[in-house]
Amino acid sequence: MSGTPTPFAFRKHIGWCLLLLGALWSAAAHALSPEDAWALAEGDTATRIEALHRLALSDSQRAHDLIRALAREAVQVQGQQVLIADNGRWIDATTGAAVDGAGAVAVMLNNRLRNALEQSLAVLDLFDPDPMRQQAAAQRLRESQLTRPDPVLAAQIERALSPPYGQRLAAPARLVLEQAQAVVRLGSSDAPQRLAAAQVLAELGQPLVRNRLAEQLERESDPAVQQALRTAVAAIDRSLALAEVVRQVFAGISLGSILLLVALGLAITYGLLGVINMAHGELIMIGAYATFVVHALFQQFLPGWFEWYLLAALPIAFMASALVGALMERGVIRWLYGRPLETLLATWGLSLILIQLVRSTFGAQNVAVVSPQWMSGGIEVMSGLTLPWNRIFIIAFAAAVVIGVALFIGRTRMGLFVRGVTQNRSMAACMGVNTARIDTLAFAFGSGIAGLAGVAVSQVGNVAPDLGQQYIIDSFMVVVLGGVGQLAGTVYAALGVGVVNKFIEGWAGAVLAKIAVLVLIILIIQKRPQGLFALKGRSA
Amino acid sequence: NPNAPIRIGVLHSLSGTMAISETALKDTVLMAVEEINGRGGVLGRRLEAVVVDPASNWPLFAELARRLLTQDRVAAVFGCWTSVSRKAVLPVFEELNGLLYYPVQYEGEEMSPNVFYTGAAPNQQAIPAVEYLMSPDGGAARRFVLLGTDYVYPRTTNRILRAFLRTRGVGSADIMEEYTPFGHSDYQTIIARIRQFAGQGVKTTVISTINGDSNVPFYRELGNQGVRATDVPVMAFSVGEEELRGVDTRPLVGHLAAWNYFMSLQNPANAEFIRKWTAFARARNIAGHRERPLTNDPMEATYIGINMWRQAVEQARSIEVDRVRVAMRGQTFQAPSGFQVRMDDRNHHLHKPVFVGEVRADGQFNVVWRTRATVRAQPWSPFIEGNDRRPETPQRTR
Amino acid sequence: MTDMPPPSAYSPLHPPSKPLFGRAGWAALLSAALLVCVVVPVLNLWVPSDHALHLSDFMVGLLGKILTYAICALAIGMIWGQAGILSLGHGLFFALGGYVMGMHLMRQIGADGVYGSALPDFMVFLGWTELPWYWALSDSFLATLLLVVLVPGALAFVFGYLAFRSRITGVYFSIITQALTLAAMLLFFRNETGFGGNNGFTDFRRILGFPLATAEMRVILFAISGIVLLAFVLLARWLLLSKFGRVLHAIRDAESRVMFCGYNPLPYKLSIWVISAAMCGVAGALYVPQVGIINPSEMSPANSIEMAIWAAVGGRASLIGPIVGAFVVNGAKSVLTVSFPEFWLFFLGALFIVVTLFMPNGLAGLAQQAWSKLRRVRA
Amino acid sequence: MSPDLLELGAQRIQAAQARTQTEPGGSGGRAAGYAHPLQAGMVDVSHGRILYLEDVTVSFDGFRALNQLSLDIAPGELRCIIGPNGAGKTTLMDVITGKTRPDAGTVYFGSTIDLLRHSEPEIAAMGIGRKFQKPTVFENLTVFENLELALACHKGVWASMRFKLKAEQRDRLAQVLHTIELTQQCHALAGSLSHGQKQWLEIGMLLMQEPKLLLLDEPVAGMTDSETERTAELLSKLKQHHSLIVVEHDMGFVRAICSKVTVLCEGALLAEGTLDEVQADERVIEVYLGR
Amino acid sequence: MLIIEQLHQYYSGAHILRGVSLQARRGEITVVLGRNGVGKTTLLKSLMGLVPIRSGRIEFDGHSLVQATPYQRARAGIGYVPQGREIFSRLTVQENLLMGLATKSAKTPIPPVLFELFPVLAQMSGRRGGDLSGGQQQQLAIARALAAAPGLLVLDEPTEGIQPNIIKDIGRVLQHLAKNGLDGQPMAILLVEQYYDFAAALASQFVVMQRGEVVAQGSGEEMEMANISKLVAI
Ligand SMILES: Nc1ncnc2c1ncn2[C@@H]1O[C@H](COP(=O)(O)OP(=O)(O)OP(=O)(O)O)[C@@H](O)[C@H]1O
Ligand SMILES: Nc1ncnc2c1ncn2[C@@H]1O[C@H](COP(=O)(O)OP(=O)(O)OP(=O)(O)O)[C@@H](O)[C@H]1O
Ligand SMILES: CC(C)C[C@H](N)C(=O)O
Ligand SMILES: [Mg+2]
Ligand SMILES: [Mg+2]
What we know:
The complex is a heteropentamer.
Chain C lengths: L22 H24 L10 H26 L7 H20 L11 H5 L15 H25 L4 H20 L11 E2 L3 E2 L2 E2 L3 H27 L1 H11 L1 H6 L4 H27 L1 E2 L6 H14 L5 H20 L4 H15 L3 H17 L1
Antiparallel strand pairs in C: 1-4, 2-3
Chain D lengths: L2 H20 L28 E10 L2 E11 L4 E5 L6 H8 L7 E6 L3 E2 L5 H7 L1 E4 L11 H8 L6 H5 L5 H13 L15 H15 L3 E5 L7 H14 L4 E5 L3 H7 L2 E6 L2 E6 L1 H6 L1 H8 L2
Parallel strand pairs in D: 3-8, 3-9, 6-7, 7-8
Antiparallel strand pairs in D: 1-2, 1-4, 4-5, 9-10
Chain E lengths: L1 E10 L2 E11 L4 E6 L5 H9 L6 E6 L2 E2 L5 H6 L2 E4 L11 H8 L12 H5 L1 H5 L10 H14 L4 E5 L7 H17 L7 E5 L3 H7 L2 E6 L2 E7 L2 H4 L2 H6 L1
Parallel strand pairs in E: 3-8, 3-9, 6-7, 7-8
Antiparallel strand pairs in E: 1-2, 1-4, 4-5, 9-10
């Protein structure tokens, strides 16, 4: 993924190392008293934290194991006995003996404890053989040093960097830890030390760092350090400003790509076929529910492959929506070509039926669609700017779908027939095109694209029976703004709306941004009554 | 006819945007009705639920309320979720002297003689929650993001919270208030801003009054952008077990919610409640719940409401509204929350316990804090100016 | 042009201009007036409530509400059916009329509100100490009556002028009307905007000093709604039988050709558009005191779409069709939401599909077909 | 305005002066200066031009449909325009009626009205009527209503609302119906007419409009020979009181109606003159008539 | 060979075609004449299956077409040039021609002779059909119908709006096509035409219609004798 492991990757590693440690543990085990274990497991938070610190600093491997187990919420108590649960088996935390913990209850964690645990773990992990874990631990320490300077931790950092321990640190972790140290040294009484710290920190363009530097600048007396601090703050400000712009553009594009995906199917069913398809949203919804079903099936029957359920969901969602679309076309819409406004009424009726159908089958409430791990987390493109993977995937997915659709419509014979049929149905028939089949196919294709959009939105939003209602207006807005029947127009309109929306939202808030975008759309249509990409010429 | 069934109205949206939340409440009423009938009914008469669908349409709420009261002549109505739907039916209930049991937490500032409020008032949810956040266990927060959907409940709650925070010495520079439209689904910008606001080195928490559909995208984006509960915890007032159903909760572990009931509470009353609901959901084949039965706070409040109504009717030996109203005062019930809740003698609100829970990986809540006893409701929040002069009992205004 | 054969050489043309109504039409109109002004009040107020013919208060309220919907449907039918302009934003005009009336009713509450202040409750609550300027005229009933027409009318004028001037047509127009109403809805949802936010206005008590929550008032409001609807039918009929109506039809079919005939379509479209918006405003104003609440969700795009659907179900080509549609759809909704709370959407959806597939001209078209068949059989 | 246009105006004014000096009348015997009273909305044809185009260029994505075309039509003239397919004839009509804006050039109706400043309905209201190449009538109105709509009268909204057909208007309608032989179908929907009938109806609408200048784009396409003859007769009668521009490919028809023919090719003037002259022109034979 | 027998057609009650019968043979040009509104276009539309007929027989090369959909008729080898051109206005000229090849396999190229016949189409091949001038569109419509080398070519007033020299070309082309087709096979041509001279010059057979009925019929040489131009003019 990236240079910076995400919190989740970090947790996964813990699991790995625990297995490793498990093999070594009988040899390395040191004593852990039942009282200490109990103090960590139960009681009020303050005492538990105290126990935690104590145990973390001890050399007891058992204690460390217990801390790690607690961090992954695997500690349970049975009577006064503290147990570590592992895949349906239990061991006694103090003795390491296997026991039967069938009646044990999990101990409670809260955020305060979790915070303390993370810090302790960071200190423990700093000397883990795995350099990735070292680095993650160092980062964690740096962060907590930035947010809440803690003398105990500061001492630990100093110690970790100094000789006997220092050699055991891998280079990247060491760098991070030095930055953490710099945070501490920024407050030192020695001016050269402060100067060096300021220079180290200038590299690290985070808002938190900026605050520390600015704070220090306020009380700094040494002019050289002052100067260094000032340039450091300015440098960070610059990089933050840049990051902000990049972030907004990215957010805009990512919103735009979702708009694009949801509008693309409509660009076909409405833009090309001229069906005012009010059930478009429901086709998206069906795609999302298809994803949910695939997801549930994987969870149940193929848990090992769960990570890849989305790949299976894509064709299935496409087919599901396409099938429903084909049925709609065959059963209802077929009779309405040439009466576009009537399709509004009929498809509205269809949408009501589809919503209720899904509601009766799956229930009115949201259903859970869990994103695969590889879509979580993000990539840090610059300091202070992490782009989430799922957004990146959706952008890429949208691009792929657009290209696919454009090729299909513009380059294939089938696409030609679709365009021909939609422009002049009876003449196309007279040319020997099986118009009924093309109609069904084209409608199913557009519906299938809506299904694909459903896969995408199931990864960012909620999946509920009225999911489609939320997208239908946006879809029409985008298609019409771009110019009906203009695929390129749809693309530009979607991205444009997304980016403009996000920029306005940046300074006016979400509500006003939405209103502003709507007003903007109205104004643009005034200037371009046939949409952004209106056909010019006689044929328009 | 003394042996004819007693009818009660169920006025919850089964379609439209609110169906997501309200459908389960309808089923809760039906479950309670079945249970009561199983025990011989009320006053020896069977209960019969008249279910209607106001379809998330507020005027339709008013119309159907009138219909329930005049055509179906129901003895009481259990219904409404959103405040606006309650406001829409209120004049009808007052005009026709009907009885409404409203089961959802709300913003207060109301006290009608024709409504019994079994959800929380702000002081039974929002204020304790913030107090918890400011405590060492809650992370000793000093900086707050008040994030909500742009409508009256969040705005009122936040107004109250602002006033409350001021009394705790939190300056307005440390409060960021932000609203999104209904159904807002793209939280990238807002969460980035929250991160910025939180990245100033002061312990910051988010108080979310986001409502409805927006919660899923909000929490998903939280997970995406790696906002962890240990850094910036989010405390929500309208996110419960049912709302979390649609989210992958693993990245959300540790985020918080405040309620008067959690499904994860361990006590006999709750075990019984969950058991009954599970059986009912399976028997009735309620989609979603038959696979994964969930209970939540408004369901509990609904259950309390209908049981208290039953007790009051039996005590009054009549279903007449005026007599039931009197009998409701001081009514108690052993609630699934594990506490004995009591209807206040005067203000038509319940005395309820308050819990703060942290999201668990399985979508349930870990109760990390609770009040020692039940808390009396303050529908007129003392943090709003002029409310000290408000009467303590509902006044008939028309 | 000179050299034409003399006109006397031909049989005189039948003048195609028809009277406003035929005899049957007038009779139907009068009996409808009688129904709303006499029959319903009598059945509701004077027939004892246990009598089989008694019309309950609930029914009067329901019918009154549907009458206001019917006005909207008529308004939509006029622009959609006659001028070919599909508005998906008429809910906005309806809501604006409603809001104007609502403001007046809010002021009528006086000091009886929860907070006992002269200001509406929500303002007290938001900490406002005086009425914002745009509430200035809300005290006066007369001004309210005027504004009910003027506010939606003026907005429609500005919007329509811009849109029609830029020759925005077809679905482009429909979509920007939808954008307009959506924007307005979001705006009204904001509490700062000053119209009560999400909750809107409710808790009305009296109108012109008379209490609202009485059977008599309900009947009166019902009768007014009915009369207004009939008056609008007359107005619409007059408009559409005139050459104005034919120009509209021509614009609907071939706008550019109309221009080459020397007509400027802009004022034509604009006037029917404004008239239709104002009609919706009046409907909204009648609606609010009857249902007792007005809030921004009336402006939601789905609501406006539904209005168009009433017109379509009834048959937008005729004037009566949309009215029939409003009654059928809303009547069906009222019955079904109670009888089949969990399945009514299936029925409603099926109704829409059946109507489109088998009754291209809506219910009214079906009736017409049946009627002409009957006549053919008799002849 | 460009300098040469100014110059042109000056020339015309001079010409007008010369004319008013020689021929009395025009301004009722008064000795007029170069200004003479103009009724609002009236076309000033005192300079011997009802339509005047200069250097009109229209291009579509680089393709020049009209290329610096100049044209002059006198009041009461019937001008035929012929030319190969795609020569720009229809485009020319589009320019005159305001449907297409030229990239460059001037278009004057009379000597005072700059057509480029006016919208389509304004141009139509001034008295330029047009029949399209593809017949366009109001398909959902009856034949009668189609003609009634085209009727010359005040065309404001309020006037339409109170419009009542006067007796003489009705007579005219009847006349026109007879002329176009649709009296039978008078109350039939225009949409149900055959192609040729629609052509006629459109001509009828044009007649009702009483325009000063008529533009007819292939009026006899799809008509039988006898109908073509009738149309020719009709146009010949019209030309005494109206100015006409007719585009046709039917040489027989052109011969029947026309004295002066303009040949367009590739957007520019190729030849001009009587039909015989033009038909003898090698270039015209080459690109258009064929051997 | 095309055989139409006793064709009756109604437009919602109005009896338009009243028992029309005619035949069109390969190698011949059959011209249908008649005044405006007599039902010529309706006849062709019935033949193409664009309007439903009440009764009658339509047979082409021995197969009955009465039940066939328009596209089946096209696949049976009928090419149609409709009145009013009916170009796919938003497809380019090239794509319009490709549409004409819909009955052929995907790899069939556009026959180059079409561009020889109508050079303007080659010039404008990238332009959208709707942007062409009226006459250009008409040429495109004819080329499009020819693209698939049909066995029967049906033309509804193909000369409308076309410049004289191209009309002459079209005449020559039709004669050539009747004899040799595009692919060497003789073709049956059914031509509806108002332009008498053109029709007379081409006709191997003629049919005159009046009020939905065939009132005269004969071979091309008989046209002058039968004084058909009078008949059409009434
Ligand atoms: N909007 C447009 N875009 C591109 N080319 C156009 C457009 N409009 C017209 N043209 C081209 O301009 C040229 C002139 O067209 P025009 O219709 O004026 O010809 P015409 O003289 O009327 O021909 P015809 O006799 O066939 O009707 C043609 O080549 C046509 O293809
Ligand atoms: N869609 C229709 N609905 C009703 N009547 C129609 C329809 N189309 C044509 N007609 C009528 O049918 C008759 C025959 O029309 P058709 O188009 O076949 O004539 P045509 O011989 O092709 O005439 P033309 O030479 O003018 O093209 C006409 O009287 C016409 O009014
Ligand atoms: C917070 C919500 C769950 C309920 C609240 N009463 C509302 O107005 O919508
Ligand atoms: Mg032309
Ligand atoms: Mg024809």
